[in-house]
Write a structure and sequence with these properties.
Elements lengths: L1 E5 L8 H14 L4 E5 L5 H5 L11 H4 L5 H4 L1 E5 L2 E4 L8 H7 L6 H7 L9 E5 L6 H9 L2 E7 L2 H19 L7 E8 L6 H13 L13 H5 L7 H4 L4 H17 L4 H5 L1
Helix pairs in contact: 1-12, 6-7
Bound molecules: adenosine-5'-diphosphate (ADP) and magnesium ion.
The site of magnesium ion (MG) has 4 residues, from helix 1.
InterPro entries: AAA_dom, DNA_Partitioning_ATPase, P-loop_NTPase
Organism: Luteolibacter yonseiensis
Pfam family, one: AAA_31
Length: 264
């Protein structure tokens, strides 16, 4: 199981939309995915149209009152499971900050899932701040996927999160953390600004930047209000095509080369 944190400390850049629709796309491609909603705003949970009873979140897991298995709920979609979130999860920041293992607690919990072989990918949706939940996610992840909005302030934010990734790597918590990718969101090819931002990012991060870009579309924006993924809301539209292509590119990047090909 690979743990992928979808992270950017800026809000409104497409983290939740990307975590949710990439997870859905991977599930449609036969990958077993556990989506973990680590944002107290619980947008992944509501965006999937899931209602959960109080106490359904990582909160009791992070405070050692429940196991992660107890908090996993089915989403009604094949191959896609969820650990939901709720407003109360915000309180765990304070509890975690008090403990001396706060950086590694989530990491240890998720590492505990690996031997079970229940999921190929664990995707973490993270809150828009550099608080304890976010740093826990970075410490727990094998890889980071950064959604980046095509605007100038997006570039400033990128520099900041790359700095935080370096700090996490430099700590004992997670020296092997990799920046798996940067995906441009809300792209509008008609604007010079969108094209300039893409050019700038590809200059500094040529390896990491996904060639797939997520366009700004009305359908992507409205899907969560129906509790649907983009594949359920507008199966053949541009948004579904883009997130499908993103999942294909993601899987190509993660493909282990077959021995015969590697030998050539
Ligand atoms: P974050 O999780 O980073 O705060 P969201 O994924 O919630 O960002 O996106 C912020 C808002 O923008 C949401 O209302 C979402 O529906 C909308 N949105 C995200 N991506 C797109 C897109 N490609 N096209 C149109 N609207 C989008
Ligand atoms: Mg979000």
């Amino acid at each position: 199981m690979k743990v992928v944190a979808v992270a950017n400390q800026k809000g409104g850049v497409g983290k939740t939309t990307t975590a949710l629709n990439l997870s859905a796309a991977l599930a449609l491609r036969g990958q077993r995915v556990l989506l973990v909603d680590l944002d107290p705003q619980a947008n992944c949970t509501s965006g999937l149209g899931i209602e959960v009873p109080d106490g359904s979140s990582m909160y009791p897991v992070l405070t050692n009152e429940a196991t992660v298995h107890q908090q996993i709920v089915p989403t009604g979609r094949e191959n896609l499971s969820l650990v939901p979130s709720e407003m109360d999860l915000a309180g765990v920041e304070i509890e975690l900050a008090r403990s001396d293992d706060h950086l590694t607690r989530l990491r240890n919990i998720l590492q505990g899932l690996k031997p079970n072989d229940l999921f190929e990918y664990c995707i973490l949706d993270t809150p828009p701040s550099l608080g304890v939940l976010m740093t826990s996610a970075l410490a727990a992840a094998d890889e980071i996927l950064i959604p980046l909005q095509c605007e100038w302030f997006g570039l400033e934010g990128l520099a900041k999160i790359v700095h935080v990734i370096d700090q996490i790597r430099g700590s004992d918590a997670n020296p092997n953390l990799t920046l798996e990718g940067i995906v441009m969101t809300m792209y509008d090819g008609r604007t010079l600004l969108s094209r300039q931002v893409v050019e700038e990012v590809s200059r500094f991060f040529p390896e990491q930047m996904y060639t797939t870009m997520i366009p700004r579309t009305i359908r992507i924006g409205e899907a969560p209000s129906h509790g649907k993924t983009i594949f359920e809301h507008d199966e053949t539209g541009l948004g579904a095509q883009a997130y499908g292509a993103l999942a294909d590119e993601f899987l190509r990047r993660h493909a282990v080369p077959s021995p015969s090909l590697a030998a050539r």
